[in-house]
Amino acid sequence: MIATIALVQDTFREAFARRIFWGFFAACTALLLFLMFIMRVDVVAGALATVTIFGRTAPRSEELQMLVAQTQSVIAMVLYFAGMALAVFASAGLVAAVFEPGRIELLLSKPISRTHLLLGRFLGNVLVIAANILYLVIGSWIIFGLKTQIWGVGFLVSSFFTIFVFAVMLAVLVLAGVLWDSAAIGIMTTFAIMIVTPILAQRAIIERLLDSEWSRNVVRVLYYALPKTAEISVIIRHVILNQPVESWMPVWSTAIFGAVVLGTGLWLFRRRTF
Amino acid sequence: MAEFAIQTEGLTKVFRNRWSGRELTAVDDVSLRVPRGSTYGLLGPNGAGKTTFVKMLLSCAHPTAGRALVFGRDTREPEARRPIGYLPENHRFPTYLTGRHMLDFYGALSGMEPAARRRRVPELLTLVGIEERAWDLRLGKYSKGMLQRVGLAQAMMHSPRLLVLDEPSDGVDPVGRKHIRDILHSLEERGVTIFLNSHLLAEVELFCREVAIIQKGKVALSGTVEELTSGSGYKVESVAVPERLQTELRAKARSVAAQNGSLTLLYATREEANQAVDQLRANGCEIESLARSRSTLEEVFMRTVESAAGEAR
Known about the structure:
The complex is a heterodimer.
Chain A: H1 2-17, H2 20-38, E1 51-53, E2 56-58, H3 61-97, H4 104-108, H5 114-148, H6 154-180, H7 183-200, H8 203-209, H9 213-225, H10 229-240, H11 249-271
Antiparallel strand pairs in A: 1-2
Helix pairs in contact in A: 1-5, 2-5, 3-5, 3-6, 3-7, 3-10, 5-6, 5-11, 6-7, 6-10, 6-11
Chain B: E1 4-16, E2 23-30, E3 33-35, E4 39-43, H1 50-57, E5 65-70, E6 73-74, E7 84-87, H2 99-109, H3 114-127, H4 144-156, E8 162-166, H5 174-189, E9 193-197, H6 201-207, E10 210-215, E11 218-224, H7 225-229, E12 230-239, H8 243-252, E13 255-259, E14 262-267, H9 270-282, E15 286-294, H10 297-312
Parallel strand pairs in B: 4-9, 4-10, 7-8, 8-9
Antiparallel strand pairs in B: 1-2, 1-3, 1-5, 5-6, 10-11, 12-14, 12-15, 13-14
Helix pairs in contact in B: 2-3, 2-4, 3-4
């Protein structure tokens, strides 16, 4: 436990020093200030009879609830796609830094297993990003709540899906780091997955466009094997809008992908000579 | 209780190129025994396999064959590495850490409790000569010498029973080297085994009791420094020796060197040396020194490396 805490603390120190944490924190704070001061809420006759958010007015409480949830889902989507890309970009350096010659030897000489070492670093990295995501989500949830008195938990729950998908992307970065010691290759691989998977989400259309059964099978295999980032974004929207989720398959298949990739990274790391 | 601090059994490392299939044997069937509480130096020219050997000892590199034991346990088990303190060569300590944070971090990885770390950090930073105002400076601002000192403190953080030091005085000024040597001597007195990997032969000769010279991945020579450097002759040094007597003395001497009015004669036997002393005293010459001749470790090293290279040819 002492070693795990030290590894997490060290990741935070490195993130602070690289200004990754502060960059995210500044961006999140800017968004929170924007919500706090720009979001206009008109109170009529001492009650929230009508509320105007970004120029859209909701006269009844059900519509108001829907309007707040829709606004929150927009924030969640910005965080999910743009925030994820930034988080991957920022984390690549943190992963590759561990494998630097002159640093890794000293870490490996300590009485902790390689699995413990890499998982400690992985956890620290997830927590660095999670701290910022939760800061933004909880902060904006409080602002919405105070201004509208609507305290739906869907928006809060959505942050865990974002952190989960980031953890899966980080597993890809870890595997690339173990294989190539390179932050750049890690970023390219992860971005490729983030670009390809929303395309694969349209597999029904793609399959209709393909001639051979063989190529359709390739698309199907890729679809099921790779994480389902686009489908999870739909789940996040449903959770925030309090709508039923049709299938949890995208979540568990993405979890399997992440576990396999991380497991492979750990296995290779244990076998590697430094 | 294991008799040896370090014991390797047929330790071998072969690097294979994945594409060409070519092989390079970096360490070849090395069986080495380092007694507990000893000061042991590992020497060898560049590319001899010293670093690979140390890396296998610390489980950074996996042996192709054989195994490395520290206090009787295979170092592939994490727990076996607990008694080891390590200072790597060409280290790259995280520059975002301060001296204090660095010791705290590596101490924690060695399993030290927070209270013990808080006590130990200032104690060690003081011991290695880092001024208090530098304790909270980032390592990026440290000089090479300061980094070596803080690196040594890091290796000593959890009071290890075995210190593996790779070029510990690299980049340190002579005063600092003496300071580091004094620290290591005090550890030796407390029974800590010190395993030194260094190119500085004079340093090794000054500090280590035993050495192994590694060449092309194999142990070419090993033994105590005393044994390896002891010569077979006797050296007599005298001043103001008259020309006539010099000619007489030269006749029996194995070698003669004259410099700044002083004459150094090397004799094969004690008897011959004593006869020379008698002659010198009879002629009213002052004896400057009389000692058994010794080779320096550097001479032993060069002889070993050259003969190993000759055999290979």
